[in-house]
């Protein structure tokens, strides 16, 4: 498919923006050059407004609700119109929502995909109408019409998860430095990964394995089930119940139903972690780490898991401040609306199968019981009352 490329799209959006600004200032109708509504594509179809379609995957996990709302607020504060939709983790729902956004005159799309390979028809249409597409947190694959990617450094998220597990097992300090008095092992661990259709899941797993591998190679750590490949350990759609069932099956097949030692479990996401912990406690481990519950990692600082960390049940989580990711998306959109090239800080890592997508990647923090207050409460992300209750009170 032939499109006008990034700057062609930007010119269209910038013209839209200019036309909207003129209309707002009461100067519409001057018919001056590029600001005229005679421009084709997105600008013509929506009456000269910057209208951003924001497609989020699901409301079953808190982070996506926070992401969606924060992006919407930031864009509205900048004066743009926003169409925010959540897709219930259902691919046809998401494709329909994006089709509808385009029909309704979206001039820019922000998409956190469910399946990163399932949106080609929507992206082809966006490309043919010169609508820029920003992949939000999850890379959209196999299509040239992905103009920018905002996310966290996903490989580093995995490294942080692997390091948290090593630290929890007493093998390293928090930075991954080997301790002299570390246990010799062998220590049994099990591995979980995220959804195979989410481009991030492989990055998290590879990052974690990069730090676990030396300990697996020298026999300090043993994956007793033998299930070590991404395909064997991935959990479709990141589902808590599926993870719980897999952990229960592993305990039955490999740990005598809970009578044999298991030191830790690599978990890529708090929902999966809670499923794993339920299975472990059900088989008689724990109930808390001090009682012998295996070390379980996580991601997203969901409130239920944050409480479990404070209570000494889940060992850690990776905090991704969705406020900063949303703000970064808004910065990118503002640049696009003004016809500028958004600033990238990574132009090599994220090849979507067709091209390397310019990216802006943010840093993450590992949360343990001892820094939870400083990182999550003092920063205003949660209140102490939220953490104590394990739910966010409005
Ligand atoms: C996100 C994670 C999240 C997971 C499940 C991933 O794409 O990067 O933050 O835990 O999806 O929602």
UniProtKB/TrEMBL annotation:
GO cellular component, one term: outer membrane-bounded periplasmic space
Keywords from the UniProt entry: Signal
Superkingdom, natural source: Bacteria
Main location: other
Extent of the signal sequence: 1-28
Domain Periplasmic binding protein: 52-341
InterPro entries hit by this protein: Bact_Solute-Bind_Prot2 (IPR050555), ChvE-like (IPR049784), Peripla_BP_I (IPR028082), SBP_2_dom (IPR025997)
SUPFAM superfamilies, per database record: Periplasmic binding protein-like I
Location of this chain's protein in the cell: Cell envelope
Entry keyword Signal: yes
GO molecular function, one term: carbohydrate binding
Record-given protein name: Sugar ABC transporter substrate-binding protein
